[in-house]
Amino acid sequence: MSAINVTQVQVLDNPQFFGNPLQFEIQYECLQNLENDLEWKLTYVGSAESDKHDQVLDTVLVGPVGVGSYKFVFQADPPDVSKIPSSDILGVTVLLLTCSYNDTEFIRVGYYVNNEYADEELRENPPEAVKMDRVVRNILAEKPRVTRFPCEFDTPTIPTAASMEEDDENREPAAGVGAGGFGGGGGMAPGFTDGGNGGMMASKMGGGEYGQQQQQQYAPQSQYGQFGQPQQYGAPPPQYAQPQYAQPQRY
Questions:
Q1: Which of 227, 240, 230, 191 is nearest to 69 (CA)?
Q2: In whole angstroms, what is the distance from residue 118 CA to residue 135 CA?
Q3: What is the pTM of this model?
C-alpha cells in the first residue's frame, strides 16, 4: 500500500480556449510522515510521433508532508505552440499529470485532449494557418487513465506488493506469486478520434484503471478562488521553509 493515496483529481475551467491556463484540483491522503517533497508534474504530449515534442508545463514541490488529508489547485500555463508540429496542433493528444517521491514516479493520470475550432465554419473549412485564438481545448475529464507504480517511501511501515511477494517466496520457496497489473483504462469518448496514433498515446498514458473515485466533476471557476492557490479547509496550513513551494491545506 502506498504512503500517498490520491483520492480525487478534478479538471477545472474545462472546456476552455487553448491559450488559457490549465487547472487541476488535487486531493490526496498521506498515511505516514514523509521527510522529502512530493513532486507534481504536468506534461503535454505535442506529437504522437516523437516524445521530443513533449512539454513539461509546470512542476511544483509540496512538502514535507505529514499524516493527513490535503487539497490544492495545480495551475500551469498552456503549451508553447511554436514547439508543436503544425499538423498536430488540432486533433487529439494527451496530458499527463504525475507525482514522484525521491525521483521515483508512483502515480500517473493521463487524459485525452481534443483541440478544435470553436466555430463550425472554421471546423468545416479550416484555414491553412491555424487560428490559435479560436481553438478550444476539451479535456476528456470523465475517463482518466490512472497508473500506479511501486515506490519505496521513507520507512517500510506500509508493506508494498513487492515486499509481500518476497515474503511469500521466502516462506514457500516452491510456490511462485504471479505478477499483478492494472486493467485497461477509459477509452475514447464519442467524437474523439486519434488519427491512428491511439496505441502510442495509450503507451504514454500507461495501463490505467478507472473507478468511481477517479470520475471528474466540472465546477465553475469562481468556486476555487485565486488561480493556483490552495483552498482553506479547517486548520491553518503547516509552515514551509521554502515560500515558493505549494502549500496544500489539511482538512
A1: 230
A2: 6
A3: 0.67
